[in-house]
Amino acid sequence: MDDNKVRIILIRLWRILVTIPIVVIYIPIVGLINLVWYRLLRRPNKVVWTISPDTSSLTLAYLRDHWVGDSNTAQNNKVFLGFVFPALGAFILMVIIPFIMGIYYSFTDWTGLNNDNLQMVWFDHYRTLLTDVKFFYSFSRTVIYSILNIVFINLVAFGLALLVTQKIKLRNLYRAGFFMPNLIGGLVLGYIWQFIFNRAIVAFGGIFAKSLLVDGNSALFALIIVVTWQYAGYIMMIYIAAIQNIPQDLIEASKIDGASAMQRLQTITFPLVAQAFTVAMFLTLVTSFKQFDTVVSLSDAGPAMLLPQWIADIYGIRIAPAVDSLNFIAVDIYKEAFSNYNMALGQAKAIIFFIILLVISLVQVNYNKKREVEL
Amino acid sequence: MTDEKRNTLIYSVIGFILMIAFFFPFFIVLINSAKDSFTITQDPLSLPTDMGQLFENIKIIVQHDGIKYFSSFFNSLLITTLSLITIGISSAMAAWVLVRTKSKLSYIIFLFFLSGMVIPFQVVMLPLVSLLEILREITTIPFKDTYWGVILAYIGFGAPLSVFLFHGFIKSIPTDIEEAAIIDGCSKSQVFFRVVLPILKPIFVTMLVLNGMWIWNDYLLPSLVIGIGGDVQTLPLAVANLAGTYVKQWDLILTSVLMAALPVIILFLFAQKHIIKGMTSGAIK
C-alpha cells in the first residue's frame, strides 16, 4: 500500500460519503411528492389490489391512504434500529447508493475505468440522447412492442380466464398448465423458442419455410408470441380473480331474464372486469418495458433492419442507418455499456428509462379506481 | 339443458386444443433432447427413435465443462435459499418494528423502502458493478465472483417488496398477543422470533414464492456480479455460457435447457397451490 493508493481509496470513500447527504435529501423529496400528489390531488376512492414484483405504483396508492400525521416518540430505539438495520443496510448499500452514483455518473465522462479523475460534463449525454436517432428508435420500438403486448396478452389471458372459469372437466389442470410457462426463466425460454422458430416450424415447409426471426418486423411478432405464451397464464389469474368476484345472483338474475351468454358477457362480465384490465394492463406495460433476457437469448436483440422511414423523417435523415429490430431500451442500456463501452451514456439512458417508468407508475396510481379484489 | 351440455363440450374441446398448443414448446424440447445433433438438423419434428440418446445427452451435459450442471444447480440452490432466508427474516424484522413504532422516523424509513420499488435494476446495474469494485478495494472482501455479493444484492433488491408485504400483513395482526408475551416476560426480540414470526407463515410463503421465482430465474444480476464462465455459476448463467460457446449445437443446448427448467417444473408439480397463490396474491388486507 503506497501513499497514492491510500489517496485513491480515500477519494472513493469520500465519494461514497458524499452521497449520503443526497440520500437524506432524497427522502424528503419523495415525501414531498407524495404529500402534494396524494394529499392535495387525492381522489376519494380506495384501492386495495394485488401486487407483483413489477408494480411499484401500488406503493404509492398505499401511501396516499396512510399518511402518518401524528407521531409518538420511538421507544426502545436500540431495538428499533437493530431490527431495521439488516434490511435497510443492504437496501441502501445495494440499491440507493448505486442509484445516487448512477445519477452522478450520468453527468460525468465515466468510462468504467477512469474512476479516479472523472470530469463533469453535466447534461452533454442527455443532449446527445435527444438528438440520437437510434435511441429514439429504441424508445419507440419499446412503446410499440408494449402496446401490442398489452393487446395480445390481455386478449389471450381474458379468453383463457373465461374458459377456465366454465364448468368443464380438468379445468384446474388447464389453469396450472397455462400458468406454467412463466415459472421458467426468460433466458431459457428464449433458447427454446429460438430453436422452434429457426428449426422446428421451418421444417413444416410451405408458408412456414421462412423463419420469423429473419426479418426485423416479423421478429417483433415472434417475440410477442413468445411473451404472450409466457405471461398470459399469469395475467389470466388476475382475470380469474375478477370473474370469480362477480356476484352470483347477478348471473342468476340475467339467466332468469333470458339473457344469452353473449349478452351476459357484454353487460355483466366486461364492466366488472374492466378494473382488472387496468391492473393487468399496467403490469404488462411495466414488464414489457423491462424486457431483457428473453430478447437476448431469442435473437440477440433481433436481426438488423433499416431504420423506419417515419423516424428518419423526424430527424431529417436521408439514408436510414441499420438498427437492431428488438433493441428495446433495457437491451440498449446494456449494449451501450458493455458493447460500446460508453458507460456514462448508458447510464444517462438508464436514468431516462427510470423517469419513464416513474411516470408510468404515477399515472397508474391516479388511473386506478379503487376497489377491493380478493384472490 | 342440452344447450349447456353442448357448450361445455365445446369449451372442453377448446381447452384441450389450447393445452396442446401451450405444451407444444415443451414437447419439442423433449423430443429433441433425445436425438443426436445430426438427427435434429435433419428432422426436428419427428419422434425420437431411441430414448437411450436422451440419457446419453444428459450424461454429456452432466459431465460438460461449459455447464458444470451439478455445481451450477447447487450454486443456484445455495444462492436462492440463502437469499430467501435472509430477505425473509430481515424484511420481517424491519416491517414488524416499522409497524409497531409509531414515529416519524419509522414512517420515513418505510417510505424509503417503498421508494425502492420504483427503481428498476437497469438503472443501478452499471454503478453497482463499480461499487462492488470499490468495496473490494476498501474492505479487501471479494464481492465479485462470489456468492456473497450476489446474495447481498438480492437482499437489497428483494427488501422493498418484502417489507411492503410484511408491513401490510403485520398491520392486520392485533397487538394483544405480543402484549401478553411481554407481560409473560419476553424481551422484544423474543416476542418477534417466538410469537410474531410463526404468525407470519402465510405471508412468508408468499414472499418466498415471489422472490424465489425471480431469484432462481434471474440472469442479468448474476451475470454482472459473478460473470459468465467463471468457477461459480448459476443455472441461467451456465445455460447462457453453453449456448454462447456451442452455437447451433442444439442437442446440447436443448438438453441443458430441459435440465435447467426441470427443477422448477418438479417444484411446481408438488407445490402448485402455494406457487399460484403466492405469485398472484399479496393483497393488502
UniProtKB/TrEMBL annotation, chain B:
Residues 73-271 form the ABC transmembrane type-1 domain. It holds the Pfam family BPD_transp_1. Keywords: Cell membrane, Membrane, Transmembrane, Transmembrane helix, Transport. The keyword Transmembrane applies. It is a multi-pass membrane protein. It is found in: Cell membrane. GO terms for biological process: transmembrane transport. Coiled coil: none annotated. The chain crosses the membrane at residues 9-31, 77-98, 105-126, 146-170, 191-216, 252-271. The keyword Transmembrane applies. CDD domains: TM_PBP2 (cd06261). Its main location: membrane. GO terms for cellular component: plasma membrane. Belongs to the binding-protein-dependent transport system permease family. This is Carbohydrate ABC transporter permease. It comes from Candidatus Xianfuyuplasma coldseepsis.
